[in-house]
Amino acid sequence: MPTPTQAFAAHAADKPLEHWHFERRDPRPDDVSIEILYCGVCHSDLHFAKNDWGFTEFPIVPGHEIVGRVTAVGPDVSGFAVGDLVGVGCMVDSCRDCDACNDGLEQYCLNGFTMTYGSPDRHDGTMTQGGYSNFVVVSERFVVAMPDGIDLKSAAPILCAGITTYSPLKHYGVGRGHRIGVIGMGGLGHMGVKLAQALGAEVTVFTRSPSKVDEAKSNGADHVVVSTDDDQMAAVAHTFDFMLDTVPVQHEIDPYLNCLKYDGTHILVGLMDPIEPPITGMNLVFKRRVVGGSLIGGMPETQEVLDFCAEHGITCDVEMIDIQSINEAFERMKSGDVRYRFVIDMQSFDKAAA
How confident is the model at residue 1 (pLDDT cuts 50, 70, 90)? Predict the structure, then answer.
């Protein structure tokens, strides 16, 4: 039967999120039912709630960094049992039959993956609703296990910020002997630093703000370059194998390309808009440099990054909030006032219901 669910939802782009009750769909044979314990707050949540991308259907319950406990499993489920601690990230379905899905790269599903919120369900057409809620139902294929010893609160953002940076590091083969620049020191950037370090690379953070130098080093950066300082940029020209670009707004890429060696790779993980100002072709052609992109990660890789973080003691730096504070958190996030991810404690729904 459908399950009554508490949530915080946006009902219009110009309205704050409000306490909302709705019914989760009937579980299917391959479904895992999950009591949500924690949910991270991502910039994408804010964009969806404000309809910044122009395709939000209201009401919308954001949240795609979900950690919870299994409360029931369908008869076709073999990998999870009641009581297991699990996670759900940015996807809850895909076509499961194309080349990308068969390769465990569901994020590149040739027929489009189903987002955790804001997507029509492939079976009944209802809109998916996310993790700013106390309960969720997800197909077993899109659920991952929380490894022993991982901190559940800080594990939530690994399901987005962690996998978004880990997947390109693995795909492009970043490891020992490589020098990598991480551009930006936010939710994505600080995870990129920690993961690249654990993979054995020498890591330099590029930041526009001198005030972030100590912050970057405290997160494990070997070096920090203030990108607004021409002398510092000139000193690192032609020295890097990779750039991991986590900046989510339009910015000039040519200065960072100039920091790459020949055959260097600049990886975009934050920017969704057109590259503006345009890249100068000479900066690619004359050094055989590559500009690439990467989107989250497939389900096998998402499990892999959780296991990797548990093994290496890697955590996301988080600030815990109650669900009632979500609108304030959105405002603080817009102004960059978070180090580096808000995570909602879903026990606070008890206060919201009071």
Answer: low
